[in-house]
Write a structure and sequence with these properties.
Strand content: 15-25%
Number of strands: 13
CATH class of the largest domain: Mainly Beta
Helix content: 25-40%
Order of helices and strands: EEEEHEEEEEEEEEHHHHHHHHH
Structural class: alpha+beta
Number of domains: 2
Strand order of the largest sheet: 1-13-10-7-12-5
Distance between the termini: 18 Å
Length: about 325
């Protein structure tokens, strides 16, 4: 739950080119063999409005009764904890905590559990076609569904998990118009994600970085996030000064290497608090920190609650 993580996103097809997502270490982060895709402008996608047709919260589900299914509406799997592998059209990958998987109508949604339990929100959605975000498709394309993401992870995970909490609370209340209220919060997440992507597509200086050395830097930070590792060590590995590394990394990822690494470690700490019985001291060591006290202070500053309170809210 933090606001400084790399986007993990896949699309069906095509109007703006982006780099494919790198493989991960199997800890519930997204993976795909989709390669390079083309995507529509997020400033066009933000025009979309969604309405909710059905909603179910599945807590600690142990298996999929239907390993594949086809839905008459857009189908959203919003993962709280655990992970599963999916196949939707030509896109394949693994979705973990915080991932949003969106399957178009009348397309087979193949899924397999990759953890012992999975907690997720199942939402059936329809688009309000009055909006033109994907109406102006290229000639010869099959349909507008090929323009929307298959899987994506919002930058602001805390906001996402706050929405998950609201959905669960709305679902337990005997109030009219539950689905429109759930839809209201989904549209907020969708538009927020589109805004985040617009910043990535259109940085303020007008340049889009494709710095191969910084891709390598980000990968090293992901590999070393469980170990004591800092900017100086990374700069030495890459043959750069710390100042050069910070400047180039910020241009590529809109964050310093230190903030990026902290974000990765907070994501790991959140997952371990939700999914294990490890003590805070053990989690600190697993996240590259010397003491549980330091992790607790940093966690409360970044996430907004103490590790013990976060665990209490998310353990089921």
């Amino acid at each position: 739950m933090h606001d400084l993580i790399i986007f993990r996103i896949f699309y069906f097809t095509t109007t703006r080119r982006v780099c494919h997502m790198p493989e991960t270490n199997g800890e519930g982060n997204a993976q795909s063999d989709a390669g390079v895709r083309f995507v529509p402008s997020p400033l066009r996608l933000i025009e979309l409005e969604w309405s909710v047709q059905d909603y179910t919260y599945w807590e600690n589900k142990r298996e999929f009764v239907m390993p594949a299914d086809v839905y008459p509406h857009w189908c959203l799997f919003a993962v709280e904890s655990g992970s599963f592998s999916y196949g939707i059209g030509e896109s394949k990958g693994t979705a973990g905590s915080g991932s949003l998987v969106l399957c178009p109508p009348s397309v087979a949604f193949i899924r397999t559990m990759t953890t012992s339990t999975l907690s997720f929100h199942f939402v059936l959605l329809s688009r309000k076609e009055s909006h033109s975000a994907v109406a102006e498709d290229d000639e010869g394309s099959e349909n507008a569904s090929s323009r929307l993401p298959v899987m994506f992870t919002p930058d602001n995970r805390q906001r996402l998990f706050d929405t998950f909490d609201k959905w669960r609370r709305i679902d337990t209340l005997s109030i009219p118009d539950q689905l429109p209220l759930i839809g209201h919060y989904w549209n907020d997440i969708w538009k927020t994600w589109c805004l985040e992507r617009s910043e990535a597509h259109y940085p303020r200086d007008g340049a889009h970085s494709e710095d191969e050395l910084m891709l390598r830097a980000a990968k090293r930070l992901e590999e070393q996030c469980a170990e004591p590792f800092g900017v100086k060590e990374l700069a030495d590995e890459l043959g750069l000064s710390s100042v050069q590394l910070i400047r180039r990394f910020r241009a590529a990822y809109r964050a310093t290497p230190g903030d990026y690494l902290t974000g990765l470690r907070m994501e790991r700490a959140c997952r371990l608090l939700r999914e294990t019985r490890m003590t805070v001291e053990q989690i600190a060591a697993s996240c590259g920190y010397a003491t549980g006290y330091y992790l607790s202070r940093l966690f409360a500053s970044r996430i907004g609650v103490a590790p013990s309170e976060y665990r209490r809210r998310h353990r089921v």
